[in-house]
Amino acid sequence: MCRIAGIISKNENYPNLHDNVKAMCNIMAHGGPDDEGITTAEQNGFVFGHRRLALIDLSEAGHQPMHYKDISIVFNGEIYNYLELKGELQNSGFDFTNATDTEVILAGYTAWGVSVFEKLEGMFAFALYDKKQDSTYLVRDQSGIKPLYYSINSGMLIFASEVKAFKTTSYSFEESKDWKTYFLTFGHIPHPFTTLENVYSLTNSCFLKWDHQTASHEIVAFSQTDYTTKVNDEHSAEELVKHRLEKAVENHLIADAPVGVFLSGGIDSSILTLLADKAIASNLKTLSINFAEQAFSEEKYQKIIADQTQGTHTSYLVTQQDLEKNLDEILSAMDQPSNDAINSWFVNKCAKENGLKAVLSGIGADELFGGYPSFKRMKLVKALKRLPKFVLRLADKLPSEKLKRIYFLSYDNPVGEYLFLRGFFTPTAVSQLLSIPKHQVDQLLENFPLDQEIKKLAGGERASWMETNLFMKNQLLKDTDYMSMAHSIEVRVPFLDQELIKAIHQISSDIKFGDQPKGLLVNSFKDILPESIWNRPKMGFTFPLQGWLRENKKITDPGLYKENSLANKLMEKFKAGNLHWSKAYALYQVFNPSS
């Protein structure tokens, strides 16, 4: 796991390119503490930079930028099927000089061209320069696990793993006029937008090809989702899920550095832990977080699973004092605003203290197997959308904040369905908080760009698409990435293994999204998963932040909100216990000039 950056421009001199890329890499050094590298060829009109977190081939042979014949690369991520691809390439006559997955990408591109991108199974974001074509490819993995941001202006392409890196350059990047509207509405900043104008995230499953001679570009999808149903039998579906997830966990444990599992005590992490135990036995390290506030502790469930494993389990106690002590550092670690991410920062801090370099996480299971309430609410969404638009808009006058979200269903855009299910502040509230016209908020949201793929989906598949492409990719994966990198930890997500995802898409919706949330996943592993883990109310991995943040003097500082009557009123509601902590946390990020 690493951090990458680069600038391509025929009109800039090499020293300026070098200094800017160096500055970008320096601000991201936390994500690559083991090594750094930068291109030195002055005649190429571009500079690539790299910060390395070494997990495969820890030697100097893994130094980047890496070169193979006429191809160069800076790579962030892990390729889990690299040994299979390497064997195939060796059988075709290709030679290798090191044991990294990075060199496999280079040799694979030499052999198969851009077709190699779809062959890669893992999490990745990289820039690959082809000298013969005089072209660069920016490439992002199929699930958007690893971030990659870019900006194009005046014949120049700039890219980096973090948005904050762009601000370290000598070029001007203005604050986006819309980021606060997006943030207060979604609770995160949705793809492809960022806090900066003209800086975008590259779409997953896509590559951006840059022609160095013409300074032109195109963005091309290198893989598509196949929703063709091929499995209609429950037993076959369970066997398929079991086989694919077992294989995924085995692949995600490949490393030359210590890898552990975060064990929350829920279904997803428990399954991963038991499968990892089966794969590496006494070498397994598991870690959990607990609290003095017993209502939030899942320690007894963690112990049930830990007692079934042969490895070492460590439990960490996180307190309100820990949050008070580290809040500024947590906010500083955030690359983009989020209404969450605090828990991820602490998990990775504990992983670092446990001597780990990588941790397996259960992200993706809820989205793929129907673990959220949204899956049950799709019939309600469909029924409400039959109402006339003017009736839906009357919901804005209702006293309940949840009922007010019916307003979003008046949009002629599927994003309104997501905002009905997960929206944060309503357009009326956003307009008052930001002192902008309400129609401006509506216009921005109604014109929000969504992949047309969603229009073909219904029911559970539609809910899964929204949870995956709007919630998971924009919040969970982003939060996890920058908070793990803040501690130089790699978080691996076996539920987003490409072969597993393909298998899940082949299974009929009735089997995937039945009466029991994540029923297919549970049934696939009932032979190893104790009933006490799956037959209980879902808690989710949450901290006691309602009470902790209410007592935080920085979050509740009246001086920050005094100029805005609604913000001031909402913070008073929060202090009285009548507003969710995440909304107060979001307001703090919007109204605190230093956040």
Automatic annotation (TrEMBL):
Highest taxon of source: Bacteria
Protein family (similarity comment): Belongs to the asparagine synthetase family.
Pfam family, one: Asn_synthase
Gene3D superfamilies: Glutamine Phosphoribosylpyrophosphate, subunit 1, domain 1, HUPs
Residue ranges constituting the Glutamine amidotransferase type-2 domain according to the UniProt record: 2-187
PROSITE patterns linked to this entry: GATASE_TYPE_2
Enzyme Commission code(s) on record: 6.3.5.4
Pathway annotation: Amino-acid biosynthesis; L-asparagine biosynthesis; L-asparagine from L-aspartate (L-Gln route): step 1/1
Catalytic activity: L-aspartate + L-glutamine + ATP + H2O = L-asparagine + L-glutamate + AMP + diphosphate + H(+)
Binding of L-glutamine, residues: 101
GO molecular function, one term: ATP binding
Transmembrane segments: none
Active site residues of this protein: 2 (for gatase activity)
UniProt KW keywords: Amino-acid biosynthesis, Asparagine biosynthesis, ATP-binding, Glutamine amidotransferase, Nucleotide-binding
GO CC, any one term: cytosol
Biological process terms in GO annotation: asparagine biosynthetic process
The name this protein goes by in its record: asparagine synthase (glutamine-hydrolyzing)
Binding residue positions for ATP: 289, 361-362
